[in-house]
Design brief:
With about 120 residues, this protein is mostly helical. It folds into two domains: about 60 residues, 434 Repressor (Amino-terminal Domain) (Orthogonal Bundle); about 40 residues, no CATH class. The protein contains eight helices and no strands. Helix 2 packs across helix 3. The longest helix has 15 residues. The chain is elongated, with a radius of gyration of 24 Å.
Length: about 120
């Protein structure tokens, strides 16, 4: 684990939560200078302390250590055909994706119900 990179990620996570170094140190029950040393890349926390930091900041340990979040599992779709089509849409150029999104939003909002009834009659 690179000390400097860990410090940057720790600072970013703390800032995103609107906490000062002193506030985080109080949550952790440690001296604020220790948090400052971590953020400046002067030292690394023990494994247990890194876990406590992640918990105090409500982030994953993976985020602090490597900078990446644990990927979320793909959404579950009851309709596998819909999932397949969504994956295909994700591969289209951006302008075509935008068109598809507008169409889907209209379908979800019920704005195309009249068109759907006319198509069923024809």
């Amino acid at each position: 684990m690179n000390m400097r990179e860990f410090g940057v990620r720790l600072t970013r996570a703390r800032d995103q939560r609107g906490l000062s170094i002193s506030q985080l140190a109080r949550r952790m029950g440690v001296d604020y200078m220790q948090i400052s040393r971590y953020e400046k890349g002067q030292s690394l926390p023990s494994f247990d302390t890194a876990i406590r930091l992640a918990n105090a900041l409500q982030v994953s340990l993976d985020l602090l250590v490597s900078g990446s979040e644990i990927p979320e599992p793909p959404p579950s779709f009851k309709n596998t055909r819909l999932l397949t089509r969504m994956r295909e849409l994700d591969e289209l150029p951006e302008h075509r994706q935008e068109l598809a999104l507008r169409f889907l939003e209209a379908v979800i909002a019920g704005e195309l119900d009249g068109l759907a009834s006319r198509l069923r009659r024809d």
